[in-house]
């Protein structure tokens, strides 16, 4: 009995020792867990503080960079607006000056043409008045001469009749007197008397014949007068031909002035076209050089962005694989240590329980008389075994919890892999955006080349035609090309700034990754395997959260930039609409100027038509005067033939 009690006391002492050992082990485990949790909390706080400070600095740098970019964009926008206003003002001033010069030239030409037309009209009117007066005087003189010729003709016929009658009377008287004298005086005195009478008759006939001579002298005088009138008519004809020559000279002078004016206009248009074409070519060359520089910078930025993206992807993949490897190793080591500790504790407890049970059975076999006490001791031992099994079950539950934590870490690894895949997709999207920027650059270069080809074609057409409307259209197309090129340059600058921001974001991510790697290295150097496992898991979660926050901030910044770009595009569209409206107003003003020019040309044409009508009337009057002069000359010749 005493031996049984001693054995029971020994078993109880052993059980108490086992319980104390199990309690000490649990206390050590709890203490180690508390220390690990404290160290993990400290490391997490340090990492969070370092990440917050680095993210704060990075955000401050990003804000500074964004403010700088926005200020640069604002300054560039203001400079471009000022440049556009200056160009519009200069174009308006040049257009007003050109219109004033053209209007002054038109007015001067119109005044000179009107003055020359007035002078020519006055001279023509004076000449026509003088010719009409001279023709009227010549007509009156011709009528008077015709009447005088008729009177002379009648006087000559009357004189001939009188001479004939007088001759007959003289002959009759001579015969009668001869007969009488022959009868009275005899035959000898008759011849003498006859001779005297014949001489008397001859004198009378000579007196009568002097009348036709007088008439002939009057006819010769009339012929001389008609010759004078004919010379006057010839003089009038020569004056009319001189007037016609003067009018032709004035018309040639007017035509020469018009041709000189059109030549001057064409020279001015060609000169302006050459100046604008040279300016456009210089601007196109500058744009081409700027496009080449932008292309080279964009290629460099594209290559640098691709290199940075590749480096960031490689670093992220390496960091992710390293963290996964470290996490897996740490978790495996922790699981192995926990399983080993649990198995050792379970084996030790089972060994001790089996030894105690064997000793109890030996004591029960040696002390069969104390069966009830042994049964009680066995029950107590069984209770201890049940407790040990419960602790083993708790250890298994702990193992299951560790397995679930491993599964959670596997889920976190899957989440990290998904985020890495999302980062790769984002990198591909950035690469596609860079390729799209390259395509936009190629499109801009093609447009610039097409604009240059179109400018050359229009320049050749303008050099061939020299038309003002084509020149204006070319100027508008050049302005549109300049606006398009300025828009393309602004878009390229915006894209370059976006690329710069993306590069800065990538650099910030690299710096953050470097800081994380350094933090991980310091944590791995400072902590043990279990700490490293827990730290890697917590750091993976913190990295995922920080990466998500950084991604969200980057996406917000990119959305802000996209909204600003959209606002700028809307502003550009409004400005383009305003410029189109101004171009439409300029086109309407140009059409009004062309209509005014057409009206002036129509007035010139009407004046020329009136001048041609007056010239034809004067020509008709001169021809009528020539006809009348020819008629009077014909009458004079007829009178001369009648007299002869």
UniProtKB/TrEMBL annotation:
Positions of the UniProt region annotated as Disordered: 512-545, 562-593
Residue ranges that the Swiss-Prot or TrEMBL entry lists as coiled coil: 15-46, 328-370
Basic and acidic residues bias spans: 562-572
Entry keywords, A to Z: Coiled coil
Low complexity compositional bias, start-end: 535-545
Official protein name in the record: Uncharacterized protein
Origin species: Chrysochromulina tobinii
Source organism phylogeny: Eukaryota, Haptista, Haptophyta, Prymnesiophyceae, Prymnesiales
């Amino acid at each position: 009995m005493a031996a049984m009690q001693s054995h029971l006391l020994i078993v109880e002492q052993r059980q108490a020792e086992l319980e104390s050992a199990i309690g000490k082990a649990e206390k050590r485990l709890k203490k180690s867990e508390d220390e690990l949790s404290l160290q993990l909390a400290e490391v997490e706080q340090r990492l969070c503080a370092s990440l917050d400070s680095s993210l704060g600095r990075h955000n401050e740098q990003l804000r500074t960079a964004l403010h700088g970019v926005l200020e640069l964009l604002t300054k560039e926008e203001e400079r471009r607006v000022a440049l556009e206003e200056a160009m519009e003002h200069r174009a308006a001033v040049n257009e007003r000056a050109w219109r004033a010069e053209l209007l002054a030239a038109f007015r001067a030409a119109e005044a000179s043409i009107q003055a020359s037309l007035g002078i020519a009209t006055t001279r023509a009117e004076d000449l026509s008045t003088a010719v009409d007066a001279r023709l009227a005087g010549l007509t009156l003189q011709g009528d008077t001469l015709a009447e005088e010729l008729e009177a002379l003709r009648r006087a000559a016929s009357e004189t001939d009749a009188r001479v004939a009658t007088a001759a007959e009377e003289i002959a009759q008287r001579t015969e009668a007197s001869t007969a009488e004298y022959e009868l009275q005086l005899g035959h000898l005195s008759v011849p003498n008397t006859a001779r005297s009478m014949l001489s008397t008759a001859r004198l009378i006939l000579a007196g009568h014949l002097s009348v036709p001579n007088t008439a002939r002298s009057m006819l010769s005088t009339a012929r001389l007068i008609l010759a004078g009138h004919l010379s006057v008519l010839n003089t009038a004809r020569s004056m009319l031909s001189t007037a016609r020559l003067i009018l032709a000279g004035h018309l040639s002078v007017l035509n020469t002035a018009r041709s000189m004016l059109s030549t001057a206009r064409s020279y001015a248009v060609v000169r302006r076209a050459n100046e604008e074409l040279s300016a456009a070519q210089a601007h196109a060359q500058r744009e081409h050089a700027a496009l080449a520089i932008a292309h080279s910078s964009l290629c460099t930025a594209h290559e640098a962005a691709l290199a940075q993206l590749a480096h960031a992807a490689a670093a992220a993949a390496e960091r992710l694989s390293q963290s996964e490897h470290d996490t897996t190793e740490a978790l495996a080591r922790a699981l192995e240590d926990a399983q080993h500790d649990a198995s050792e504790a379970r084996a030790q407890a089972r060994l001790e329980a089996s030894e105690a049970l064997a000793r109890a059975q030996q004591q029960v076999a040696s002390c069969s008389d104390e069966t009830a006490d042994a049964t009680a001791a066995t029950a107590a031992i069984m209770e201890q075994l049940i407790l040990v099994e419960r602790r083993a079950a708790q250890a298994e539950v702990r193992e299951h919890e560790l397995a679930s934590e491993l599964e959670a870490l596997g889920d976190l690894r899957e989440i990290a892999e998904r985020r890495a895949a999302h980062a790769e997709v984002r990198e591909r999207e950035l690469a596609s955006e860079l390729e799209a920027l390259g395509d936009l650059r190629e499109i801009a270069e093609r447009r610039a080349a097409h604009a240059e080809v179109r400018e050359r074609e229009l320049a050749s057409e303008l050099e061939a035609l020299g038309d003002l409307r084509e020149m204006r259209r070319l100027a508008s197309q050049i302005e549109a090309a300049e606006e398009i090129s300025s828009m393309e340059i602004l878009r390229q600058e915006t894209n370059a700034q976006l690329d710069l921001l993306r590069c800065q974001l990538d650099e910030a991510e690299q710096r953050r990754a470097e800081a994380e790697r350094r933090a991980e290295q310091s944590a791995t150097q400072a902590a043990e395997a279990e700490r490293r496992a827990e730290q890697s898991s917590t750091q993976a979660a913190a990295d995922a959260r920080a990466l998500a926050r950084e991604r969200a901030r980057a996406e917000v910044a990119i959305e802000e930039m996209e909204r600003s770009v959209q606002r700028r595009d809307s502003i550009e569209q409004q400005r383009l609409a305003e410029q189109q409206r101004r171009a439409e107003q300029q086109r309407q003003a140009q059409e009004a100027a062309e209509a005014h020019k057409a009206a002036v040309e129509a007035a010139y044409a009407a004046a020329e038509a009136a001048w041609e009508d007056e010239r034809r009337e004067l020509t008709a009057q001169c021809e009528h005067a020539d006809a009348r002069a020819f008629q009077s000359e014909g009458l004079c010749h007829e009178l001369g033939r009648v007299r002869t």
